[in-house]
């Protein structure tokens, strides 16, 4: 998959016959997103033209709520890796800037979709809006599709258990600690990925050596103590217990993801791992003494082992 950040860098020679395009934030890449991607890939194969996912970095919601952005479900790298593995040809991800915020819907269609990507088929969801003040929508695309020589498909939303599948619903489920609901909307356990960094060695001093992972997020979608499974290591999938938060007993400010791997003893600094959140055990708590903290950590580890032993995901 080719990553393109600027419209001038789109591979215009490869797009002479056209492209099949979908547009969105694609945060979390849930069942609804997969339905869009499946249709884009199928159509691109039948037409013999490249498939393109257009997204933005930062996301529009992050741009407009810079002081208090919504929690990211996926880092940029995670999104790129998922789309590449899914079979998308081009990931066009320009910076969401004041100029992008102000572009009129008609200009967006002509300059970006038609002239930039040579879109011949566009696939969007049923809540799709674009351009300045979200003025563009599916009806406008349909009004201009014939004169501009492209077709439009609208994909209906998916509802599971009475809940419309969306990134917003997944964030709400995760914030409530409802990991089973989040999993049902995503189609897989919620995952965070990152590189293991050096920490303050506090866990090791307490008898719980941890892999510290840089979140690279302003806000985390999950907070608390969790039973997890970790992949990406040469040992295969490893069970563990994770803490996401500010470690109130030690008064940290920046949120941190720490994972204690069960029955594991190897230096893994610098390695890139994936953490699947299986069940939430409890909230973060502030303890009056280190002894109380260690006793609770013992209980957390025991609970995590029991949960993972019973879980078949």
Can you walk through the features of this model?
- This protein folds into two domains: 2-160, Rossmann fold; 190-310, Elongation Factor Tu (Ef-tu), domain 3.
- The protein is built from ten helices and 16 strands.
- It has a six-stranded parallel β-sheet with strand order 1-4-3-2-5-8, with helices on both faces. The protein has a six-stranded antiparallel barrel with strand order 11-12-15-14-13-16. The chain has a two-stranded antiparallel ribbon with strand order 6-7.
- The mean pLDDT is 91.
- The two termini are 29 Å apart.
- Helix 7 packs antiparallel against helix 8 (179-186).
- The chain is of the alpha/beta class and 313 residues long.
- It has helices at residues 31-47, 60-64, 76-86, 98-102, 105-116, 138-144, 167-175, 179-186, 202-205, 290-310, and strands at residues 2-4, 19-23, 51-54, 90-92, 119-125, 129-130, 136-137, 151-155, 159-160, 163-164, 190-197, 211-213, 224-233, 236-245, 256-261, 272-282.
């Amino acid at each position: 998959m080719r990553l393109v950040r600027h419209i001038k860098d789109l591979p215009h020679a490869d797009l002479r016959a056209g492209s099949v395009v979908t547009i969105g934030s694609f945060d979390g890449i849930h069942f609804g997103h997969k339905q869009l991607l499946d249709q884009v890939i199928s159509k691109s194969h039948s037409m013999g033209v490249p498939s393109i996912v257009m997204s933005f970095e930062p996301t529009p919601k992050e741009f407009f709520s810079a002081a208090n952005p919504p929690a990211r479900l996926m880092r940029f790298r995670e999104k790129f890796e998922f789309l590449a593995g899914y079979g998308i040809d081009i990931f066009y991800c320009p910076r969401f800037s004041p100029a992008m915020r102000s572009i009129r819907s008609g200009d967006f269609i002509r300059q970006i979709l038609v002239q930039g990507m040579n879109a011949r088929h566009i696939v969007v969801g049923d809540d799709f809006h674009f351009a300045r003040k979200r003025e563009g929508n599916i009806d406008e695309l349909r009004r201009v599709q014939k004169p501009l020589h492209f077709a439009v498909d609208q994909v209906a939303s998916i509802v599971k258990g009475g809940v419309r599948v969306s990134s917003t619903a997944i964030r709400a489920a995760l914030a409530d600690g409802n990991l089973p609901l989040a999993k049902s909307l995503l189609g897989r356990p919620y995952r965070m990925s990152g590189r293991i960094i050096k920490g303050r060695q506090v866990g090791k001093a307490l008898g719980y050596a941890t892999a510290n992972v840089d979140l690279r997020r302003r806000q985390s979608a999950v907070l608390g103590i969790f039973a997890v499974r970790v992949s990406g290591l040469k040992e295969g999938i490893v069970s563990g217990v994770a803490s996401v938060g500010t470690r109130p007993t030690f008064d940290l400010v920046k949120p941190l993801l720490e994972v204690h791997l069960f029955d594991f003893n190897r230096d893994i600094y610098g390695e890139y791992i994936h953490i699947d959140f299986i069940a939430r055990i409890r909230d973060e708590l502030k303890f009056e003494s280190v002894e109380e903290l260690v006793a609770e950590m013992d209980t957390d580890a025991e609970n995590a082992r029991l949960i993972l032993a019973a879980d078949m995901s």
